[in-house]
From TrEMBL, chain A:
Organism: Salipiger bermudensis (strain DSM 26914 / JCM 13377 / KCTC 12554 / HTCC2601) (Pelagibaca bermudensis)
Annotated GO CC locations: plasma membrane
Sorted UniProt keywords: ATP-binding, Cell inner membrane, Cell membrane, Hydrolase, Membrane, Nucleotide-binding, Repeat, Translocase, Transport
Any one biological process term the GO annotation gives: transmembrane transport
Keyword Secreted: no
UniProt-recorded name of the protein: Glutathione import ATP-binding protein GsiA
Length: 360, 300
C-alpha cells in the first residue's frame, strides 16, 4: 500500500471539473531589455512573444525547441520567477491576479511546482536532504514534526530511503539521486501541475530511464499533470500526450504528439525531426536539415520568424506574421497551412498533409 | 513500501537529523589542518596572555627605573630587556596585547556585522537599492585604506574609541563588497529560485538559503581582514593617533623604541615581532578556515 502525496490540507481543490483545462496561457510575452554600451539605444530580446496554450487535467504537454527558443523563460513566467510583460495565466479556471475569483500567486505556487534542470545547483549545498524537502512545507506553515514526517514519506516515494539519505548533503548524492530529491521537493506541497524543465536531460541514459519511470508512476498514482520541457525529441515523444514546438519565442506547432511526430505540418518541425539521427540506413541523411543558428531575437522584424532558414520562404512570409491555423487536431503557424494566405505552395502542402493523415 | 515501514522510518530520521552539523564538520576539518591548528594555538596563547596580563606580567608595565633603562634582552629580572624609561618590555608586550588585539579585532567585527548586512541586502535588492549602496561604497574605495584611517582619526582626534570608529568606517565598504558579490552569485542559483517558487517570504529565503552560503566567504575575508586591521591599528598608534602615551600598545611601543634602534636594535624589533606574528597567524587561520568551509572538500 502506498501513501498518497495528495492531501486535503495542502493541495488545491479541483474547482473546474475534468473538462476545465488545468492551465490556460494566453498571449504570454516577455521582452528583456538589453543595452549595447552606455549610450546605446535600448533594445528588446523577444524571449517569449505571444505564447498561448492549454494543458488538460492529467495530460502531459511536451515543449521542444532549440536552445534559446524561450522554453525555459516560459516556465519561469508561469511561476512568476520572471515577471511577465503581458499575458494571462489561468489555473483551473481562476486567473492569476484576477481579483476576487482569481488565484493568488501563493496559491498558484502551491498548485504548480517545478523540477529544475541542473541537479547540482538546484539543491542548497549547505542543507540536508530532509531539510531541503521540508522547506516548501515549512514555508507553507506546516509544523516541524508534520513537515518532517511528510518529507520522509516523499523521499520514500521517490525511491530514496529517508534513513539513508535524509541527513546527507547534496554533494554526497549522485545526479540521479539529486534529481529524485528535486522531484520530492517539487511534490512537497501536493501540486497538481509539475513543470519538468529539462529534468532528465543531464542524466545518464540508464538513470534517465529510471527517473522517467518514476515520473510516470507518480503521475499515474497521484493524477498529476506535467509540463515536460526537453531538447531530446525522443524522450518528449515517449512521455507527452501533446507537443508544443517553439521557435524564437513563438509556437510553431502544437497538437497531439503522435500526429506531430508522424506528420509534422510546420517546416521547422519537419527539419527538427529530420535532424534526429536514425539507425535506419535508408533514413540517414548527408546534409543537416537545418543550417546555422536561429536568428537574433533582438527586435525581430515582422513576418514569420523561421523564414530566414525555411526552404519554402516567400514574400508573404516576410510581410505577414503567420497566425495559428487548425489542421485536424494540430494548430500550425505557417502560411503554407492556410489556403487563404497567398503562399504559392499552400494548396500542395495542405493536400499532401491531409493525404498523409487519410493514409495513416 | 508498507505503512509500518514508513512509520518506523520517521523516528530514526529525527535521530539522523542530529548527526554532525555543518559547523561541526568544519571544526573537524580544521582540526586536521596542521597550519590552521598551529596558528590558532599561537593566537590562543597571545589572547590568553593578554587577558591574564595582571596575573602573568612580571612587572608593572607603566613604571620603571631610569637606572635600568635600555637593558638588553636576557637581563636577569627583565627577560626581554627594558625601554628608554626602564619599563619592563615583556610586561608591556603582554599588557599591550590587550589594546592591540582590541583595536585590531573590534573594528573588523563591527564592519562584518554592518558591511555583511548591507552587502546581503544590496545583493538581493533590485537595481536601484543596489546601485545606491554600491556607488556610495565605491567612493570609499577611492582612498587607500591607511590614508582614510589616518584622515578619519585625524578629524575625530586621539583616543581608542576614535581609532575603532575610523577603522570600522574603513573596513565596512570592503566587507560590504565581498558580501554583495557573494550574495549576487548565490541569488542566481537554482536553489534560490526553487525557494522563491514556494510560498516562502523574502526574509525566510534570505536567512535559510542565502545567508548560510554567503557566510563562509564573509567570515574567511573578515579573518584575513583582522590581519590588516592589526597592522593599521598599530600604524595609527605608531604615529600617535591612537591611545594616550603611558598605556602599553604594540604600535606605540614600536614608536617609543624607535630611538633605541641605534643603541640596542634587537629591543626595538620586539613589538614589531608581536604585530607580524599575530597578523600572519590570522592570515594563515583565514586560509585554513577557507578550505575547511569549502563544502566540496568533504570526504576527500
Amino acid at each position: 500500500m502506498t501513501q498518497h502525496i495528495r492531501t486535503e490540507s495542502l493541495g488545491l481543490p479541483d474547482v473546474g471539473g475534468p473538462a476545465q483545462p488545468l492551465l490556460i496561457v494566453r498571449d504570454l510575452k516577455k521582452h528583456f531589455p538589453v543595452r549595447s554600451g552606455l549610450m546605446g539605444k535600448a533594445e528588446k530580446v523577444h524571449a517569449v512573444d505571444g505564447v498561448s496554450f492549454r494543458i488538460g487535467k492529467g495530460e502531459t504537454l511536451g515543449i521542444v525547441g532549440e536552445s534559446g527558443c524561450g522554453k525555459s523563460t516560459t516556465t519561469r513566467l508561469l511561476l512568476d520567477l520572471t515577471r511577465r510583460d503581458a499575458g494571462e495565466i489561468i489555473f483551473d479556471g481562476r486567473g492569476l491576479g484576477g481579483g476576487r475569483d482569481g488565484i493568488s500567486l501563493k496559491e498558484l505556487r502551491r498548485g504548480m511546482q517545478m523540477v529544475f534542470q541542473d541537479s547540482s545547483t538546484s539543491l542548497n549545498p549547505r542543507a540536508r536532504i530532509l531539510d531541503i524537502v521540508m522547506f516548501p512545507l515549512r514555508a507553507a506553515g506546516v509544523d516541524r514534526t508534520k513537515a518532517r514526517d511528510r518529507a520522509s514519506m516523499l523521499l520514500d516515494r521517490v525511491g530514496l530511503h529517508p534513513q539513508a539519505f535524509g541527513h546527507r548533503f547534496a554533494h554526497e548524492l549522485s545526479g540521479g539521486q539529486r534529481q529524485r530529491v528535486n522531484i520530492a521537493r517539487a511534490l512537497a506541497t501536493a501540486p497538481r501541475l509539475v513543470i519538468l524543465d529539462e529534468a532528465v536531460s543531464a542524466l545518464d541514459k540508464s538513470v534517465e530511464a529510471d527517473v522517467l519511470n518514476l515520473l510516470a508512476d507518480l503521475k499515474a498514482e497521484e493524477g498529476l499533470t506535467y509540463l515536460f520541457i526537453s531538447h531530446d525529441l525522443g524522450v518528449v515523444r515517449e512521455v507527452s500526450d501533446r507537443v508544443m514546438v517553439m521557435y524564437l519565442g513563438q509556437i510553431a506547432e502544437i497538437g497531439p504528439a503522435e500526429t506531430i511526430y508522424d506528420r509534422p505540418g510546420h517546416p521547422y518541425t519537419r527539419a527538427l525531426l529530420a535532424a534526429v539521427p536514425s539507425l535506419d540506413p535508408a533514413k540517414q541523411i548527408a546534409e543537416p536539415p537545418l543550417k546555422g543558428d536561429p536568428p537574433n531575437p533582438i527586435n525581430p522584424e515582422p513576418g514569420c520568424r523561421f523564414r530566414a532558414r525555411c526552404p519554402y520562404a516567400e514574400g508573404v512570409c516576410k510581410a505577414i506574421d503567420p497566425a495559428p491555423v487548425p489542421v485536424g487536431e494540430v494548430e500550425i503557424s505557417c502560411h503554407m497551412c492556410n489556403r487563404a494566405s497567398g503562399h504559392s505552395q499552400a494548396a500542395d502542402w495542405l493536400d499532401a498533409l491531409t493525404k498523409e493523415t487519410a493514409d495513416a | 513500501m508498507t505503512m509500518t515501514q514508513l512509520q518506523s522510518a520517521s523516528p530514526s530520521v529525527s535521530a539522523a537529523a542530529k548527526a554532525p552539523g555543518y559547523w561541526r564538520s568544519v571544526g573537524q576539518r580544521l582540526m586536521r589542518d596542521r597550519v590552521g591548528i598551529a596558528s590558532a594555538l599561537v593566537l590562543l596563547a597571545i589572547v590568553v596572555s593578554a587577558l591574564a596580563a595582571p596575573l602573568i606580567a612580571p612587572h608593572d608595565p607603566n613604571s620603571g627605573s631610569v637606572m635600568t633603562r635600555l637593558s638588553p634582552i636576557g637581563t636577569p629580572g627583565h627577560l626581554l630587556g627594558t625601554d628608554a624609561t626602564g619599563r619592563d618590555i615583556l610586561s608591556r608586550l603582554i599588557w599591550g596585547g590587550r589594546l592591540s588585539l582590541l583595536s585590531g579585532i573590534t573594528p573588523v567585527v563591527l564592519a562584518t556585522l554592518i558591511g555583511g548586512t548591507l552587502g546581503i541586502i544590496a545583493g538581493m535588492s533590485g537595481r536601484l537599492v543596489n546601485g545606491i549602496i554600491m556607488r556610495i561604497t565605491d567612493i570609499f574605495f577611492a582612498f587607500p585604506s591607511i590614508l582614510l584611517a589616518v584622515a578619519i582619526s585625524g578629524v575625530l582626534g586621539n583616543g581608542l574609541g576614535n581609532t575603532l570608529v575610523s577603522l570600522t568606517v574603513v573596513f565596512v565598504p570592503q566587507v560590504l563588497r565581498v558580501a554583495e558579490s557573494a550574495t549576487v552569485q548565490i541569488a542566481r542559483q537554482d536553489y534560490v529560485d526553487a525557494a522563491r517558487a514556494t510560498t516562502a517570504s523574502r526574509l525566510l529565503i534570505m536567512t535559510s538559503q542565502v545567508l548560510p552560503n554567503v557566510l563562509s566567504p564573509i567570515l574567511v575575508f573578515a579573518t584575513s581582514l583582522i590581519a590588516v586591521s592589526l597592522v593599521v591599528a598599530a600604524g595609527l598608534n605608531f604615529i600617535g593617533l591612537g591611545v594616550a602615551p603611558p598605556a602599553a600598545e604594540w604600535g606605540s611601543m614600536l614608536n617609543e623604541l624607535r630611538d633605541a634602534i641605534y643603541i640596542n636594535p634587537t629591543l626595538s624589533i620586539l613589538p614589531g615581532v608581536m604585530i607580524v606574528a599575530t597578523s600572519v597567524c590570522f592570515n594563515l587561520l583565514s586560509d585554513s578556515l577557507g578550505s575547511a568551509m569549502n563544502i566540496r572538500e568533504t570526504d576527500k
